[in-house]
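Data deposition worksheet. Section B asks for the primary sequence of the deposited chain exactly as it was used as input, without tags or linkers unless they were present during the calculation. Section C holds the resulting structure in token form. Section D is free text for depositor observations; keep each observation to a single sentence. Incomplete worksheets are returned to the depositor.
Section A, Depositor: J.P.
Section B:
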Amino acid sequence: MLDWIPLQDLTVNNPKDFDISKCRVWCRPGDPDQLHRIRFDGLARSPGCSFYFYRVPHRMSFKLKGPGHCVVNFAGGSVAMTIRMTGAADPVIGSCLAIIKERISAGGVRAVLLNTDLLIKKGCLFSDDILIQGANQHGLVSLPDKTVIAAKRNRVVVEQRSGSGDLRR
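Section C:
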């Protein structure tokens, strides 16, 4: 069973005082003291976001831009990850969903999501300086009918026991 805390009750980097109302952070009883390891940044109006921590990871941060994002995290321990979630409350650019399963090791992962579902399955290993891009952020528009091209919902799945390293070294 999980208990929830309003996001406003935690330390949030939100210097422009964007709306983060109705955002909830869920965690196991006894874990709220560990939530200081999670960083939340308000980059725009972002009400109604939900964060579920079945385990609290070593270091994780969320950059929020838009309403209704959801994160479900099962990973604890050595996870260093930043997830930027961008979306809007409209049918073209929706909110983001990130599910991070258990037994993940991540030295430094950045995930940039726009209208994206991200699933990282259990047992994955990432070195540092890894980018997961979950969006076509070019904003292509068909001029004849003024419709957004490539506006479908994106889905990124990192399969079970996958590994990703930095090849520049």
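Section D:
The chain has a mean pLDDT of 89.
The chain is about 0% helix and 45% strand.
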